[in-house]
Each structure stands twice: as structure tokens, then as C-alpha cells.
Specification:
685 residues, mainly beta, 5-stranded mixed sheet, 5 helices, globular
Length: 685
């Protein structure tokens, strides 16, 4: 039965009668409600404004999501690993898709958001819970869809952005767009360098120890140290191309190359000197997508393909004396991912029917060399493996009434030699009141996530007997918005509840290495909310405030692998409370912006012990303040901005023994020459 679903979906797409997003393009009956996409009915989403994505060349996707959504980002320090957690799940339960191509590592299952500059992204949408089923499987917490697109504005347009900040930080960004109506192109280059050697007070060490006459320690000082070995070199080149063949459809292609060379900073508990070791990671990644779409009055078709190549290397060496460096760890992995798929939709009366079929092949080669004192040659381990996955989706959306829409999605995945059970998702959306656009949305789904290649085949430690993680979740929420002459407000609140069985967790073994196992069950539930408003007052004045709040208990319900002390406790590194506020005051090109973030305490141990400093990370507030000015002249647009990060000089950690920078400064300059200067002059008669 399951394989029949896959075959039927492929045949339907092969016929080519259905296509994606047709509800945006076809004529439908006029209703009294505000225009909304039938495809997105019942879905809980957060759209990130494009101005926030391009606010600063120093921002990565990690900062933007942490400040403007309910996603918690676990950061190992400035410029280092940053992973998302949505609705109390782990980093591998949040998928990230770029132009429809899933870019989570099939090796580890997660993605490092710090390696994605927000300035190269044109659109970003967070799909919470069941909403992710429309675009991918295995996203038990949700998915983030980002895209880079070809130019929309006609003519030639150029933008140059430069930034400089504390700790010898420099950012450069160049964007060149061109469009003549038929061919559109967008070329982007982003480069970041930072010495990243910020100072911090090390509370894990003691100096200037002072004793009383009886020899008892009575006082001491905490040393001020610098973040050592955290230098960053990050290059991104993105090319997007679109061609309109009119009646024959449109073609779009995107290429994204990135090269990352960064040091991994020392832990604050380390006593090594900065010059007696190297701890470095390099990552060369190429991502490409190409797609063709044909739109018609009642249907459209889209066929696309994608490819990812990644070469990741990690090296740890130490000084053995006499200036000789000994390689302690030399590991690396090479990844090839090839994806092809087709999507189609058909709109008829008040129905939107769609089908998607996708095939993906992942091939991984992993090597790990470790120095062994007993064997001068060390030990070499690793594996070469691959996995083929097939994914098929059938979806039906129905609008029986002007104020009511219903939807059902059925998805199924074949991953290697395993098949998931059918993955259903139900959606409902109703307009409770046209005045104020009060909308109620609800959804429910069952979801599956297959183990990663590292979970299955890592040597040592891989567990081929792992079961897929199974999630059952539902949510219900209400949103409202209203605008008067000078004031507009909006708000939404959502309750979610989720159970995940067979949660995959890496635990230590008696053999001296770690291995993944399926633990019993995790219960995640809580509230997500967002609200904001804008007020135009006086002459050319505008004040806007937007905020997010999340209450996310994520509870371990126990199992044989857990100790009794861990049962009923909050999962590690997941805060119960988090919130953010962004306030902006604008006047005649001037803009004053204040950002505020809060995270409650995060536990380091599964038993949630707080007896020592090593058991819990303290809650912290974060404040940033920026002042900018934009000038528009006949020769172009020029902008300047000054930012104070960590305005209140907060001392905090997001991960144990990984210090974060205190108050620091950043300056941004932007120039966009006028189209009259960049476009060919028209010949006068």
C-alpha cells in the first residue's frame, strides 16, 4: 500500500496536470475575506521581513532567527557552531531548505546557521510543526525555507556594503542585479574576516590566591583572558538566473559556493597556550538548483533538480616540543547529494489539488585519523556509504465557505530499505471575524525522521539497528490584525503539543566511545506568540515595535536508557522561556533601533542538577542599539549605521565553557548608485 502511494504520485506528476502555487495565479471567486493563499491555509508560519535579512553584513541566519522568531539558537560562541531548536526539539529536528533543496547534512542531520550570511538571502519563512509537511519530512520541530532569487527591478542595480567592528572584524558585500523583462540575474559576493579575540572574565579559573594564617583559602581573583584561536575567514558567492520563455514557461537556476576557514576557540577551562596547538576547520561547499515552471489558467507544472558537494576537514595538532607539531586528530568527510523532483497542482472551483514526487541520493565518505601514543602511526577509521530516498506527497485543500478552508496532506518516504508509515497532516482555517481579520488555525500531523548516516555507520559507535523517530503533534492558534489611518497592530498566539517516540540520543558506552540509542519518549508542549504595531505621528515620524515570546517545556518521559533522576526533567540546553523585542523609531531617513532578547536558564545535565556552576547556564538579557541615516540623491543612495552590541555589557554563555563577547561596536556603510548612472543612456530623438 505504501509503495502504491509513491507510484501513484509519480504517475500523477508525470502526466503533468498539476502544479505548485497555482492559487496565487488563477482567477477565483471573490470572497469577503482578505486574500490568502489556499495552499497555506491552516499553516503556522513566521515570515522574516527582507529588510531584517539585509540589515547588517555581519548577521548570519542564526542572529536573524533568534531575534525575530521563536527559534532558540544554541551558539558555541561568536562565529562558531550555531544550531536551531524549534518547539523544544533538537537541532536535527529543524530542517533548512534553500530554493526547495534541503541543505541539512545527511551525515549529521543538523546545519550550522552561522555559515549562512543573512544578506545573501531574499526570503525566509519559518514553518512551525505540521506546516513543514508541505515541504519536507523529518522536521519534527519545523522547517526554515530560505531562497535567493534573480532580480525583479528592471535595469542594472548595484549595491555595495562594507562593515567594520571590534575584534578586527571586517565584512564586505557586493550585489549586482540586472533585468530586461525576459532575462534576470543577481550576483552576490559576501566576505567576512574576524580575528575574534574578544576579552572575557574567566570564572572557571582562579588567580592571586589568598590564604589566612591557618592556610585556608579566603579570596582570589578571576583572570581576564582572550578568546584564543577563533579566527574566521568566510567567503560566499551566489549567482541566480531567471529566464522567461513566455508561453513555454520560466527557467531559474541558482549556484551558491562557500568556503569557510575558521579556528575553533579554546574552552575557557583550557590551560593551553595559544601558540602550542592548532584547532582548525575548513569547509568547501557547492550548492546548485535548477527549475522549470509552466503556469496555465487552471494548472501548472514545476520540475527541478539540485546538487550539493561538501568537503569538510578538521585538524587538531599540538606542539610536541622543539617546534614540532604532532597531528592528534585529522578527520574529514566528503558529501555528494543529488536531488530531482516534480510538483504539480490543479485548481477547480474551490479545490486545490497537488502532488509532489522527489528522489534523492546521498553519498558520504568519512575518515578519522587519531594519534595513538602506543602506535606512532595512529589509528584510522571511517566509512563509505550512501542512501537513496524517495518521497511522495498528495495534498488537497478545499474552501467550502468564504470564511472556512480545510486541507489534508498525505506524505510517504522510502529511505534506503526502510519505509515510513503514511504521514498524514490535517489543516483547518476559519475567519472568526472579518473585522480585525481574526483567523483561527489548527493542524495535526504524524511525522518520522530516519537516522542519519553517522547514526547508522559511524566507526566506532554507529548503530544500524536504530529505529526512526516518530512524532505526533498538533497545534491551534489565533491571529488578528487591524489598521487605522495612522496605527496598525497585529498579534498571534499558538498552543502546540508534541510527543516524540524513539528519540535518538548518543550515550557513552563501557567500550570507551559513544553510541546512539532510541530512548523512550519526549513530550514537548507550550505557547508561541508574536505581536507588534506601528504608529505614524507628527511629521515624518514612525514608531514600530515587534516581539516574540515562547514557553517551551520539553520533558523527558523516561525509558530504560535514562537514569531515574532524568525522568520528568527538562531536556538539556533548551530554555523554558525565551522572548525578543525589536523597537524602531524613524524620522526623515534617520533610524534608531533597539533589540532585546531574553533566555531562561538552560540545564547542562539530564538530571537538571543546579548544585554547581557546571550544572546550569544562568538566564541572561541581551540588548543591542543602532543608529543609522540614509541619504537619497540624484547620484544614488548612501547609508551609514553605528551599532553597539551587548549594550549593557552582559556576561553570558550559550554553551558551557564557551564565552561570548561583551560590549562591542560595529559600523556599516552602504552605497547604491542611481539607475541613471548604471543604465545605458537612451538615445534622444
Amino acid at each position: 500500500m505504501r509503495r502504491c502511494v509513491v507510484i501513484v504520485a509519480m504517475l500523477l506528476v508525470g502526466i503533468g496536470s498539476w502544479a505548485q502555487d497555482v492559487a496565487r495565479r488563477v482567477d477565483i471567486e471573490q470572497v469577503e475575506v482578505t486574500t490568502r493563499s489556499l495552499r497555506e491555509s491552516g499553516m503556522q508560519t513566521t515570515r522574516i521581513d527582507s529588510t531584517l535579512l539585509r540589515e547588517s553584513p555581519s548577521f548570519s541566519l542564526a542572529e536573524v532567527l533568534a531575534q525575530n522568531s521563536t527559534i532558540f539558537v544554541k551558539s558555541y560562541g561568536r562565529g562558531t557552531l550555531s544550531t536551531p531548536s524549534l518547539r523544544g526539539t533538537s537541532s536535527s529536528h529543524t530542517k533548512v531548505l534553500w530554493n526547495g533543496l534541503e541543505i541539512n547534512s545527511p551525515l549529521l542531520g543538523s546545519i550550522d546557521l552561522s555559515t549562512i550570511p543573512s544578506i545573501i538571502i531574499d526570503r525566509a519563512v519559518v514553518h512551525h510543526g505540521a506546516s513543514s509537511i508541505e515541504s519536507t519530512t523529518g522536521a519534527l520541530g519545523g522547517a526554515v525555507n530560505i531562497s535567493s532569487e534573480a532580480a525583479h527591478k528592471p535595469g542594472l542595480n548595484i549595491s555595495v556594503v562594507s562593515g567594520a567592528g571590534s575584534f578586527c572584524t571586517f565584512d564586505e558585500f557586493l550585489r549586482v542585479d540586472y533585468s530586461n523583462g525576459r532575462v534576470s540575474s543577481s550576483s552576490r559576493v559576501a566576505y567576512t574576516y574576524s580575528r575574534n579575540d574578544f576579552p572575557y572574565t574567566n570564572y572557571y579559573k582562579k588567580t592571586n590566591l589568598r590564604y589566612d594564617d591557618a592556610g585556608k583559602l579566603v579570596d582570589w581573583d578571576y583572570p581576564t583572558e582572550r578568546n584564543r584561536g577563533g579566527e574566521i575567514n568566510d567567503l560566499h558567492i551566489v549567482q541566480s538566473l531567471g529566464v522567461d520563455f513566455k508561453d513555454k514557461g520560466t527557467l531559474d537556476a541558482n549556484i551558491w559556493y562557500s568556503r569557510l576557514d575558521r579556528g575553533l576557540p579554546m574552552l575557557s577551562v583550557s590551560y593551553r597556550q595559544g601558540d602550542d596547538y592548532t584547532n582548525n576547520q575548513t569547509d568547501n561547499t557547492l550548492r546548485t538548483t535548477v527549475g522549470w515552471r509552466m503556469l496555465r489558467h487552471r494548472y501548472s507544472i514545476r520540475v527541478d533538480a539540485g546538487y550539493i558537494f561538501s568537503d569538510l576537514k578538521y585538524n587538531y595538532s599540538r606542539d610536541a616540543g622543539g617546534g614540532k607539531q604532532v597531528v592528534m586528530i585529522d578527520s574529514g568527510s566528503r558529501l555528494h547529494s543529488i536531488k530531482g523532483g516534480a510538483t504539480g497542482s490543479w485548481y477547480l472551483d474551490r479545490w486545490l489539488l497537488s502532488a509532489t514526487a522527489e528522489v534523492r541520493q546521498d553519498i558520504v565518505s568519512s575518515r578519522d585519523y587519531r594519534y595513538d601514543k602506543q602506535d606512532s602511526n595512529g589509528t584510522l577509521s571511517g566509512y563509505d556509504n550512501g542512501r537513496l530516498s524517495l518521497d511522495a506527497t498528495l495534498s488537497a485543500k478545499w474552501q467550502p465557505l468564504a470564511r472556512l478552508s480545510l486541507g489534508v496532506t498525505l506524505r510517504e518516504q522510502l529511505c534506503g530499505n526502510q519505509a515510513s508509515k503514511p504521514i498524514p497532516a490535517l489543516f483547518i482555517e476559519g475567519v472568526a471575524s472579518p473585522k480585525g481579520n481574526v483567523i483561527v488555525r489548527a493542524s495535526a500531523t504524524r511525522n518520522y525522521r530516519f537516522p542519519t548516516l553517522n547514526d547508522l555507520y559511524s566507526k566506532p559507535g554507529g548503530n544500524p539497528a536504530l529505529k526512526p523517530e516518530e512524532g505526533l503533534s498538533y497545534d491551534i492558534g489565533v491571529s488578528a490584525e487591524h489598521a487605522w489611518k495612522k496605527v496598525s497592530v497585529h498579534a498571534r498566539v499558538t498552543w502546540f503539543d508534541s510527543y516524540i517516540d524513539n528519540w535518538i540520543l548518543w550515550l557513552p558506552t563501557f567500550n570507551g566511545f559513544w553510541s546512539p540509542v532510541n530512548v523512550r519518549r519526549v513530550h514537548s508542549y507550550g505557547i508561541e506568540s508574536a505581536a507588534g504595531g506601528a504608529w505614524r505621528f507628527g511629521k515624518d515620524w514612525r514608531l514600530s515595535v515587534d516581539g516574540c515570546f515562547a514557553w517551551t517545556p520539553s520533558i523527558n518521559l523516561g525509558g530504560e536508557e535514562w537514569s531515574s533522576e532524568a525522568q520528568g526533567k527538562q531536556l538539556v540546553y533548551i530554555p523554558r522561556l525565551s522572548s525578543s523585542i525589536v523597537g524602531t523609531l524613524a524620522w526623515r531617513g534617520w533610524e534608531l533601533r533597539y533589540r532585546w532578547n531574553y533566555y531562561s536558564e538552560r540545564y547542562i545535565t539530564s538530571s537538571n542538577q543546579t548544585a554547581t556552576r557546571l550544572g546550569v547556564l544562568q538566564p541572561y538579557f541581551m540588548s543591542d542599539l543602532s543608529l543609522g541615516k540614509r541619504w537619497s540623491r540624484a547620484w544614488g543612495v548612501f547609508a551609514a549605521k553605528f551599532t553597539i552590541n551587548n549594550l549593557l555589557n552582559e556576561e553570558y554563555e550559550s554553551v558551557l565553557s564557551r564565552p561570548m563577547p561583551r560590549q562591542n561596536y560595529y559600523v556599516t556603510l552602504e552605497f547604491a548608485p542611481s539607475a541613471k548612472l548604471t543604465s545605458p543612456r537612451k538615445r534622444t530623438q
